[in-house]
Amino acid sequence: MSAESLSLLFAEDGDSAPEFYQIFNTFSEDSSDVNTLFFKFLSDTTKRQIKSVFRLDDLRDYKKSPSVHKGILANKIGGLWKEILIDAIYFLRINDSRERLFYKDKNTKSDMKQSVVEAVRRANTFGIDDLYAYFNQFTEFESILYGTDKFYRDHIIHPINVWIIGLHIIKKFGSSFKILSCEKIEVAKNDSGDNGQSKMHLSIAELSAMWTVISLTHDIGYPLEKVEKINDQLEKMLGQFGKIKFNRSNFAFENRHDNLVNFLINFISSVAKPDSNNPHSLTNHKQWKFWTKKSKIAKHKKDSKENNWFIHKRWKYWSKFSKSWEAYDHGIVSSLILLKSLTFFIEADYADSSPLTKNEDARQFAIRSEILHSIAAHTTPKIYHLLTNNLPFLLILCDEMQEWSRPTFSDIRAGARGRARRVELTELSIDKMNSKIEFKADYEDLPYDSQLILAEKIFSGWYERLRYALDDAERNLTFHWTLSFGEEAKFVWEFIFNSSNPTFEIVELMIPEGENDNCQKRKTIEDLKALREKLNNRHSSKK
User: Average pLDDT for residues 36-51, to the nearest whole number?
Assistant: First the structure.
């Protein structure tokens, strides 16, 4: 493993490994160590609450009583979820130089300014109570969701684990990250920065705050996606009584929502570009000329270091997000819920007819757009990924890695805690140009059909997101995802991708009973889909 890489054991024997939570040992009120900077967005109150939930003394005994620990965690999760979100949104606001909350004479990027934070943080996170009320209703509704789909898994504790995985990765590689909504923004390697006053900087703490909002809210739209599943179960059950008139439950957003939905899709499909990168320079931009003809803005610009920023709509993203909205995919529904709930997003800057006139306008556009884009993109596999050092890819990666302690309804009925016994990130390196990802999940012994279903689901998703497409010559990625089943890994499925090779590779490895030689088969995604289709047809014929 290279010096600039990360390895981490997430779970062992189906339970979270205590080492996974030791990231919170880096909490230090006075430390300026660069390795703790990504935690600076948290208030002292929230840090104490996190420590009370993830106490290391309790975690050392976790393997002895995992069900008790998970029960305690579930009871505390709602309040903790709210407090962490309040800190993240408030921190992003106090680093907006256009707001009164911004402390111009102090380096607000260093910490939450504890002397005033408790008095104002809650009062200035407008909409959080509405969002929290929705989250509580989601929590109560989850028991119904378990009954709608035998493959449904936890989405309440899951976001916290996704959040922590991402914190580990940001701690190691955050300074290499790019903001896709504005490529001119640079993530500062230390905690200093000028908050967009001249150069376009983003602190590690701001990046962590953005990740916090993304990871904790990425699944809040899930119930709406599952309405059809509820219909199917009810119709199937009532069908046992013969012909009974059944009106399927349905929902549709009324026309009055259209403007907000259109704004969302345009907003998350756009990127901020400075005038020098835009084919329509300010001197030729008729609308800009008309706007500034009788104003002082044009004169001010001559002596200012500020750029003029144009919002460029990326039509490929627009069409893909529009398609995702038509399907009510829970990612884009989650983004809409955030936009409707939190004033932080409602007040986002977006100008498609006239330029943004300040660097901070563009910086804040990018922060908000990147958050909502990342959430929507995680259920939009049509969007392919060239780079790994960005928040949209980080969410997909962490979401897929969180494979432990998430039993399906079938597992619960069988008394299982979850199928993944050991989950490990064996190697991760993320750079601006080169990346390597190796992940391995060990599952309990499953029938071959169940192995196939799981492998096809996971591998098809990665295949579509990492597919060869426009500008993929820029990509330099080695990707290896392994699923093993049974004692001593008798069955192994591997998904291998190397950007220097022309094809994806899928290997099915089987060790026959009582034999030492491996039976190795190489397959394509098409092979897996054909096998899955054959399996579905076989099950349908038995009904």
Answer: 82
